[in-house]
């Protein structure tokens, strides 16, 4: 099983409920195919780097999951068919990216180094 990340950008015209419903649909496709969702991260409404379909912002959502390769084509087909999706990107994570994400989730990067007291 490989580990993948999919970032989905939804149109900003959606309400919060409709956006959550759309994301739940894609999560259900992932879990129904026998994949295991490692982490979901909702980044919320963000400004886009460039306009897409005359829209300057979008709802961003990241899903990290373990799956076989057959799921990717099925998931991407559903993403292409859904008119609420502006853009999406799926990448397969190598072992270094998986280790980095595990450290990030455990909070290893947010710890401040201890300062020694001069005395």
Rg over CA atoms, rounded to whole Å, is: 17 Å
* Residue share in β-strands: 35-45%
Give a count of the beta strands, DSSP E runs of length 2 or more.
4
Level-2 CATH architecture: 2-Layer Sandwich
Q: Distance N terminus to C terminus?
A: 54 Å
CATH class: Alpha Beta
* Count, helices: 3
Function: Binds together with bS18 to 16S ribosomal RNA.
Pfam families: Ribosomal_S6
GO molecular function, one term: structural constituent of ribosome
Keywords: Ribonucleoprotein, Ribosomal protein, RNA-binding, rRNA-binding
Quickly list its features.
single chain, 119 residues, alpha+beta, four-stranded antiparallel beta sheet, 3 helices, 40% strand, globular, ribosomal protein, rRNA-binding, Ribosomal_S6_plastid/chlpt, Transl_elong_EF1B/ribsomal_bS6
């Amino acid at each position: 099983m490989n580990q993948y990340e999919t970032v989905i950008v939804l149109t900003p015209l959606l309400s919060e409920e409709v956006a959550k419903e759309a994301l739940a649909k894609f999560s259900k496709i992932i879990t129904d195919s026998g994949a295991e969702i490692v982490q979901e991260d909702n980044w919320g409404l963000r400004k886009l780097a460039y306009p897409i379909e005359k829209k300057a912002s979008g709802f961003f959502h990241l899903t990290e999951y373990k799956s076989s390769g057959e799921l990717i084509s099925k998931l991407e087909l559903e993403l292409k068919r859904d008119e609420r999706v502006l853009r999406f990107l799926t990448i397969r994570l190598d072992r270094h990216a998986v280790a980095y994400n595990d450290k990030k989730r455990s909070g290893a990067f947010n710890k401040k180094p201890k300062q020694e007291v001069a005395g």
